[in-house]
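User: I'm curious whether this sequence folds into something compact or stays loose and floppy. Could you predict its structure so I can see for myself?
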Amino acid sequence: MKSISFLVLFFSPTIFLFPQNTDLNNQNFLKKNSVNIEFGGYTVLGAVYYERVIVNQPKFKAVGQIGYGLIGWPIGLMGLFSSNKHHFEIGACITFPSNLIVEYDYSSYLTGRLGYRFQKPEGNFVFRAGLMPVVVGPDKELGPDMILWVWPGISFGMAF
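Assistant: Here's the prediction. I'll summarize afterward.
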């Protein structure tokens, strides 16, 4: 009995010496909302976006996004594959044209996204850079063919 008591007394203080079980390489975002200004990107000429984290897991996050640009209203969904503050983005967006600022004769168009995102789990600053393959439907002047091109985009934002 004395040996068991001695072992319990000897090893129980060591429990407090071990740190919490945290994985510093993969964490959830603490701030789930952000506002971004993008140059290029989904609306080709640039836009302002509001984003909301929908799924917030250590290694995967899903982000919904709505914005307004010079040629339309983009609404998108992206998946983020995370490693601490570095994230790989893959997503899709549909842009609904608006003729308020720029005369634009296309119907809605679909855009993808492959990119990089820098955002610390606890941080405010958001930086994104990516390539957007854009698929535009039939045009009144160009005919019924689909148009495909890849467009770059870079954005800066603030999480809150």
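Summary: The two ends are 57 Å apart (CA to CA). Strands lie at 33-40, 47-56, 60-69, 72-83, 86-97, 109-118, 125-136, 147-159.
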